[in-house]
Amino acid sequence: MSAGWIPAAYAAPGRRALRVTVVAAAGFYLFRYGLDSPVAATYALFGTVALGGLSKIPGTGRQRAAVVLHALPVCWLLVVIGTYLSVRTWSAVTGMFVVGFALAFSAVGGPRPAGAAPGLQLLYILPSFPPYDPASLGERLIGTTTGLTLFIAAEALILPGPAPPTYQERAAQAAHTAARRAALLAAPPYALTGADIRAIHEAGHALRSLTVPEAERPAGPGMRDRALTHTGLATRTLLNRLTQLPVTPGDPPGPAVIAVLNAVARLATATESCLRAGTSPAAPYQELVTARARLAASSATAPAPTDGAGPGADFPPAELRRHAAVLEIADAALTMATAADLAVRGRQASVEVAAGRFWYASAWAPSLWWHRIRGHAERRSVFFQNAVRIAMALTAARLVAGVDTLPHGFWAMLATLTLTRTTMDETWSTIRLALAGTLAGALVTAGTLVLVGADTTVYAVLLPLWMLVAFTVGPVKGVGWAQGMFTVLVALVFAQLAPPTWQLAEVRMLDVLVGSAIGAVFGLLAWPRGAHDELCRAVAGLLRRAAEIVVATSASVAGGGATAAPPAATCHRSLQHAVILAESAYAQFQSEPTPFGGRRRGVALPEVDWQATLMAGHHTLWGSERLLEPPLTGLGPAAAESADGLGDRVAGRMLLVSAALDPGGDTPTAPLPPLDPALAGFATEPPGAPRLYYSTVSWLGSLMTDLSRIARGGPGPEHSDDVTTVGS
Fold first, then answer.
1. 635 phi and psi, to 5 degrees?
2. At 53, which helix (H) or strand (E)?
3. Cα(655)–Cα(659) distance, rounded to whole angstroms?
4. I want to staple 40 with a disulfide (CB 3.0 to 4.6 A). Which of 128, 143, 366, 367 is the partner?
5. DSSP string covering 173-208, please?
C-alpha cells in the first residue's frame, strides 16, 4: 500500500485504517442489518475502533494481534463491570476511578500495555451510559467478541507490515562489532582507526531507545525483558570502554592484557551466537574469568614496597592505568554475556549469575511485576501521576454526565480521554485544535443530516468510506482533523441506530466542549508541567544517592575495607530506585514539548545532557560493586589519601550538579563551572600506588567525565546513547 501511489506518511496509517474499516463495518452491518441487533452492532464497531483506532499498540500487525488476543479476557471483564456498575451514578463513578487508574497505571508494564490502555478505557466507558440494561449483557459480549476476533484475524493477515530488526538482533550485531574491535586492540598496532571508532558509535547508536521501534524495546517487568535491557546497556558500556583504552605508541601491552582482550573478543562472538542461535557462552565466559583473574594477579606479583604501599606498586603507572581500563572492559563483557544468556535461556542460563547485579534472575514473574508496580506507586513517579490525572478527569466527566444527564455523555468522556495530555501547555494546545476540528465536523454533520434525512442507506454507504479516510488522514494531519472527521463518523453510526436530527451535531459539540473543559481543569490541577519538573527532581535525587555511594566506596577502598560505611546492598537499592524514577521521567520528557520557554527555576532544560546523568547512575552502581569485591587490600598512605580525596571531590561535584538541577529557595545562584578543578587530580601518580588505586581512579574519572558533560550539555559521542531501565 506504500508502493508509489500513496505518500509515505500515509502508508502505515492507511494499512491500519483498512483493517479497522473492514472489521468494524463487517461487524456493524452483520448485527445491525443481518441479525437486527443494534446493541451487538454498536459493540462490534466500537470494540474494533477502541483497540484498532484509539489504542496505539506498537509493532507489526501480528504483534498487535497477539496483544489484543491476550487482552480479550480483560475486554470481557470491562464490559461486564461497566454494565453492572452503570445502573447507579455513584457506582459507575467509583468504578470509573478504579478502572481508569488501573488501566492508565498499567503503562508500567511497557509500551504495549500503555498503547492498549486508552482502548480498554473506552470498553469500560461504553457500557457505563444509557441504556442501563444488564439484560443486554449477552449481546454486548457477543458484539465485542465478534468485533475483536475479526480484528485479531485482520491484524495478523491483512497487510501486517514488515517486521523491523528485534532488539535482540541489534544487540547481537553490536556484540559482533565489539568482538572485532577487541581483536584489533589485541594485535599490532594495538589501536583503533577512525573508521573503527565510528563503527563502534554506530553500533551503540543502534541500541538507543529512540532508534528502536517501540514494540521492540525490552521495557517489560519480566526477567527476559530485564535481561535483554541489561544486555544492551552492558554492550554499550563495552563498546565505550573499547574506545577509551589508553594506547601509548611504541609501548605494546603485556601478554596478560593481550590475553584478556582476546578472551573478550571470543566472549563477544559467543554472545552474538547466543543471541542469534541460543548457544551457550559458558566456555568463553570461563576463559575470560580466568584471564581477568590472571591480569589482576599480575599487578600484584611485584613485592610490596617498604613504605606500606600495596602490592603491584613497582609496575609503571601507564601500565597500571591500562590494566585498570582492560579490567573494566572485561567486566563489561562478562556482564554482557551473562545478561544475554539470561535473556535467551532464562532460568536455564549456563553462566554464573551474580546475585546482586542480576537480582531478577531468581525472582518469579509475579514478584517482578510487584517490584515494578511498587517502585512506581508513589507520587514522584510519572506513571503514577499520569494515572491519577486521567482517572480523576474521567471520574469527573462521568459524574457530570450522570448528574446532569448529559445527552450522549459517552462522547464527553471520550473527549476527556483523548484530549488530556501530560502538560497543561500541551493539553490547552490540543483542546484548541480539537474544538476547531469538532466545530468544523459538526457543521458538516448538520448539513449531511439535513440533506440526507432518515435515509439509512446513504449513511450505510458513506460509513466505511468515511471511516477509511478518517483513520488514514487523522493520525497524519493531527488532532484537529482527527476530531472533526470522528465527529462526522459517529454521526453516521448513530444515524443508523436511531432516527437522526441535526441536533446530533449540536450535542456532539457540547459533549466535546464539556469533556475538553474537564480535561483542561485536571491538566491544570494535577502536575501541569508533566515530566519536566519531575525529571529535574528525579535526576537530582539520583545524583544525591550516587554521591553517598561514591563517598562510601572510596572510603572503603582507601581504608582497605576497614572504614565503616553504609551496607552496600542498601545503598545500591536506593540508587537503583532513583534510577528507575529518573528513567521513567526521562522517557516521558522526550515525548513532551519544552514548557515555558524551556526553563525551570534557572535551569535551561535543553542544555542538560540527561543521558549522561542516567549513565552516571549506572556507572556508580557497577563500579562500586566491582571495587568492593573482597578481599580489599590497603592502598598505602599516599594513594589512600588521594583516592579518598578524589572520591569526596566527585561526590561534592555530584551534589553541586544536583543542586543546580533542582535548586531550593536558598541555593546559591552562581553558575556552575562546566569543568571541575579536581579533574587535574586524576593525572597525579602517588608513589607506590597499587592496581586497586588505578581502578578506583578510573571509575571516579569516568563519573567526573559524566558530570562534566551534564554541566556542558554537550554529550560526547561515547555517551550519546539513551539508557533504558535495568533495575526497575
1. -95, -15
2. none
3. 6
4. 143
5. HHHHHHHHHHHHHTSTT-S--HHHHHHHHHHHHTTS
DSSP bridge pairs for 600: 603
3-class DSSP string for 697-721: HHHHHHHHHHHHHHHHCCCCHHHCC
The alpha carbons of the chain give a radius of gyration, in whole angstroms, of 30
What is the rounded distance in angstroms from the CA atom of residue 47 to the CA atom of residue 143? 8
Cell of 98: 478504579
Cβ contact 62:151 at 8 Å: no
Express each pLDDT in 272-308 by its tens digit: 999 999 899 999 999 999 998 888 777 554 444 434 4
pTM: 0.79
Query: What would the mean pLDDT of 614-627 be, rounded to a whole number?
Result: 80
The DSSP line for 255-274 is HHHHHHHHHHHHHHHHHHHH
Q: Is 8 buried (19+), middle (13-18) or exposed (0-12) by CB count in 10 A?
A: exposed
Alpha carbon dihedral 209, 215, 216, 218, in 10-degree steps, equals 70
Contact 81, 95 (CB under 8 A): yes
Contacts of 431-435 with C-beta under 8 Å, sequence gap 24+, read 431/516, 431/519, 431/520, 433/478, 433/479, 433/480, 433/483, 434/479, 434/480, 434/483, 434/512, 434/516, 435/483, 435/512, 435/513, 435/516
**Distance between CA 557 and CA 632 in Å, rounded?**
7
| Range scoring the smallest mean pLDDT among 42-56, 136-150, 269-283, 577-591 | 577-591
Neighbours of 475 (CB within 10 A): 20
Are residues 96 and 124 in contact, defined by beta-carbon separation less than 8 angstroms? yes
The pLDDT of residue 530 is above 90? no
How long is the chain? 728
What is the average per-residue pLDDT within 149-170?
87
Higher pLDDT, 268 or 396: 268
The model's pLDDT over 313-356, given as tens digits with 9 standing for 90+, comes to 456 777 888 888 888 899 889 999 999 999 998 888 888 776 66
